Amino acid sequence: MSATGGDDAIVIGGGHNGLVCACYLAARGWRVRVLERRGVVGGAAVTEEFHPGFRNSTASYTVSLLNPKVIRDLQLAKHGLRVIERPFSNFLPLNERDYIKVGGGLAATQAEVARFSRKDADALPAYYAMLDRVAAVLKDVLLETPPNVGGGIVDMLQAWKVGKRMKQLDMAARRDVMDLFTKSAGDVLDQWFESDPIKACFGFDSVVGNYASPYTPGSAYVLLHHVFGEVNGKQGIWGHAVGGMGAITRAMAAEAADRGVTISLEAPVKRVLVEGGRAVGVELESGEVLRARCVVSNLNPKLLFGKLVAGTDVPEDFSRRIDAYKVGSGTFRMNVALSELPRFLCLPEPGAHLSSGIIMAPTMRYMEQAYFDAKTFGWSREPIVEILIPSTVDDSLAPAGKHVASLFCQHVAPQLPGARSWDDCRDTVADLMIDTVTRYAPNFKASVIARQIHSPLDLERKFGLVGGDIMHGALSLDQLFSARPVLGHGDYRTPVRGLYQCGSGTHPGGGVTGIPGHNAAREILRDGRQ
Predict the structure, then answer these.
(1) Distance CA 249, CA 512 (A)
(2) Quick count: other Cβ atoms within 10 Å of Cβ 277?
(3) Which residues pair with 239 in a beta bridge?
(4) Which of the 8 DSSP states describes residue 304?
(5) DSSP string of 456-521?
(6) Cis omega (within 30 of 0) on the bond before 507?
(7) How far apart are CA 4 and CA 109, in angstroms?
(8) In the prediction, which pLDDT does 433 show?
(9) What is the rounded distance in angstroms from the CA atom of residue 19 to the CA atom of residue 517?
(10) What pLDDT is recorded for position 3?
(11) DSSP string covering 40-99, please?
């Protein structure tokens, strides 16, 4: 076992948050090394060729939550990042005759909704204003370090700052905050609207990366979590990174290199070295030892403390809480190469709707039944499928006249009931997902040239997403803010001195935001001055 190194910080995991954290540390003159297990940087935000001539965002697939401060600070535009806005947010085929489109401005959405309910169309401005009011307050908290329960004066100050923001809200807004943190998305939407199509449009966000019914208490927060975003300064917009999601992490890696960060690929970590209660480096699976002043993990907390940190190095109660940390987003992810665009029965001609999020989930009850099925059988017999066809706006992804599509599918069980393995069922479920789309667009199945399948087990093996969890842990009230991942360690620090976390298993949670990496770097630098 040979020992090398002498870095100020070692970052485990070259996903987007690891790269962001590394960039901020390096900007202060720190010597930083990023260790990536795979042969490509970017974690789950990568673009890969999955069939000759066809490239797509392999796992993460759309842009909105990437924080504007991170974009500016890391000069991502200078490194080539360009994001194209979606013309519509969502297009939902409801049956062979009808559909609903959301986006393109308030008037356009109201006109769509009015076809189903004039009352709901009239309620839209107030609903949007409510979401914006709550989101604006919570967005201020995103870049803050959560206060630790029982902490010192710094944590008391953080708690005061958060409380002050809440105090500035009137009582109606405080009630809205309570509703969105504690109620189900279904209950909230049922209070606002009467027609199924608009509730399905909004309710879909509550099950994205959330293995639950839209009527599960707390699912309203998951809906809110997806409202924080913006594209090119426009709030609530979703977009496509030209070149796929890998364009984001390639730009981050380029900035990291400019700041002197060393990125080591194919460098899987075997364990974190702890001496005298302090993290002093890592041992690679090759046997090489790298030492540093601190170690920063971009991994799921269960992966970090379940495999890389010895149980004797952390308190027993902390280990027990990490064991109980809820993961498993119920996600089944596919990429397909297409010979032609899908022709939906309800809207068969090509148009802007094919550049939006296309969602096969016509009602909230449909989504709820999908969850019940998955819990009972392992996957939903009528699954929730969202399609994005990025090649409609980015011709670099497919040969001329051909297309690529992302299929983001809910709900599937992270672990199948009984003795079944996802290795035995993945193709069966992939067929079901394609057949589900084909019910709405009859030419779809015949147009599939090739497909890339990622079951929850595949996502765990390939990207380290434990249980296939794209959020690095459920976004439930007991796993948010100061309690993410464990109460008392919501400030990016761990029970091991010199060991930090910067991934989506910390505040504010999942999505390609860069915020956990940003916030963790601030706390690491603060400790480094002491």
Answers:
(1) 10
(2) 11
(3) 63, 85
(4) I
(5) HHHHHHHH--GGG-TTSS---GGGSGGGSSSTT--SSB-SSBTEEE-STTSTT-SSS--HHHHHHH
(6) no
(7) 59
(8) 98
(9) 8
(10) 46
(11) SSBTTS-EEEEETTEEEESS---BS-S-HHHHHHTTTTTTT--EEEPSSSEEEE-SSS-E
Q: What is the Cα–Cα distance from 111 to 344, expressed in whole angstroms? A: 21
Q: Which of 59, 35, 64 is nearest to 45 (CA)?
A: 59
Residues paired with residue 297 on neighbouring β-strands, in sequence order: 12, 501
Distances (CA, A) of 88 to 107, 193, 308, 498: 13, 21, 44, 46
Distance CA 35, CA 18 (A): 9
Q: Are 141 and 165 in contact (CB under 8 A)?
A: yes
Q: How far apart are CA 360 and CA 94, in angstroms?
A: 8
Residue 200, Cβ neighbours under 10 Å: how many?
A: 25
Summarised one tens digit per residue, pLDDT across range 341-358 is: 999 999 999 999 999 999
Nearest to 394 by CA among 85, 111, 91: 85
- Backbone conformation region of residue 224, classed left if phi is above 0, alpha if psi is from -120 to 50, else beta: alpha
Every domain of the chain and the residues it spans: 3-53+67-82+243-325+474-528, 126-237
The residue among 299, 386, 381, 383 whose CA lies nearest residue 334 is: 386
Give the homologous superfamily in CATH for domain 3-53+67-82+243-325+474-528. Answer: FAD/NAD(P)-binding domain (3.50.50.60)
Q: What are phi and psi of 452, to 5 degrees?
A: -120, 125
Measured CA to CA, the distance from residue 325 to residue 307 in angstroms comes to 15
16/481 Cα distance (integer angstroms): 20
What number of other Cβ atoms are within 10 A of residue 159's Cβ? 16
Residue 361 makes CB contacts below 8 A (sequence gap 6+) with 92, 200, 204, 367, 370, 384, 385, 386
Give, as one character, the DSSP assignment of residue 402. Answer: -
Residue 359 — φ and ψ, nearest 5°?
-115, 125
Single-letter residue type at 488: G
3-state per-residue secondary structure call for 405-470: EEEEEEEECCCCCCCCCHHHHHHHHHHHHHHHHHHHCCCHHHHEEEEEEECHHHHHHHHCCHHHCC
Is residue 182 within 8 A of residue 192, CB to CB? The reply is no
H or E element at residue 139 = helix 118-142
Q: Name the token pair of 428.
A: 């069966």
For residue 391, what are the contacts with CB-CB under 8 A and spacing of at least 6?
397, 398, 402, 403, 404, 405
Report d(CA 448, CA 435) in Å as an integer.
Answer: 11
Q: Which residue in the block uniquely carries the two structure tokens 């002093």?
A: 280
- Return d(Cα 219, Cα 330) in angstroms, integer: 14
Q: What is the pLDDT of residues 457-510, one digit of tens each?
A: 999 999 999 999 999 999 998 999 999 999 999 999 999 999 999 999 999 999
Per-residue model confidence (pLDDT) at position 141:
85
Round to whole Å and give the CA distance between 134 and 136. 5
pTM above threshold 0.85: yes
Between these two residues, 44 and 169, which has the higher pLDDT value? 44
